[in-house]
Amino acid sequence: MNKSKAAFLMTVDKLVDTFPNLYFWTFTFIKVVPDWQACELWSWFIRDVQRKYNGTVFGVKVTELHANHGLHFHCIVNRRLNVNVLRSIGVRHGFGRMQVAVVKDRQQLYYLSKYLGKSKGRWFAGAQRWHTIGGFKGVKVRDIEKVDTISEWMARIFKGHKISFADYMRFRVAIIDGNWKAVRLMKLEHMRRLAWERMYGEAKAQKRIVSDRRAEVMRRALERRKNSHKAPQKQKYSLTTLLEKPPLSSGFDSLTASWNQCDATKLARWMKGPAKC
To answer: Of 98, 126, 206, 277, which has fewest CB within 10 angstroms of its CB?
Structure first.
C-alpha cells in the first residue's frame, strides 16, 4: 500500500464518520478525451453542481482509467442529488452515462481504492488520482508517514545522529539483500562506532538483554572487524621459554644442536657476544 492509497482510505473513514448517509456516483464521458481535458471538464462540472446546490455537496472523487472507455469519475457525496439535474449539467461538459447507488457499508467505499493501484502509464502526469469535493477536509498524502521495520531499526540505532544517503542505502542492503550477513554488516562504519555502545548501554540501563539472533550476528561481525585492524602482537620470550625452545631466527641456528647443554650463565654471556658450549 502506497501513501496515496492510505490517505484515501483514511479520508473515506473520516467521511463515513462525518455524514450518516452517503451516495456512490459514477460519471462516464460520451467519448474518450485526453486526461488534461477530462480534468478541466470535471472541474467545470463540479463547479456548476456546487452552484446549483449552494455549495452543500461534500465528498471525494476517484479517477478510473479504463482500457476501452477512457476515464470514469467515481464520487462519494454526502447528500441526495437529482439525477435529471446532474444529467442536464453533465451534457454541457461531455458526460454521458451516470449511475448512482446508496452506500450500505464501508466495504463499498474501500472498493474504490483498487483504482489507485492500477497502472496509469503516461496518464495523469503531475495530476491527482483522487481529491475531495466541496472543500471537505480529508487526510493529505504529505501527512502520511510510512514506517517500516527498517525505519524503526534505523531510528533506534542512529538516534540523534545524521547519516548520509549512501550509509542509508548500505543499511538497507545489509538488512534486505545481505540477510544480516556479516560480510555486508562489516561495511557499516556508523554501526561499528555508535550503534552497539548506545544499544547495549540502554539495555543495561533498563535491565534488559538483547538476545535477538540478528543482533548476535551483528555483534560478532563487528567484533571481528574491530579485531582485524589490530596489529599482531610480538611474541614475548621469558628466560625459561628460551631454555626450553629456541626462537626461530638465524642467530640461534648454530646453537640449536647443543642448546640443551647451555645453562643460564652461558646464555646471558652469549647475549653479549658469541658463546661456546
So the answer is: 126
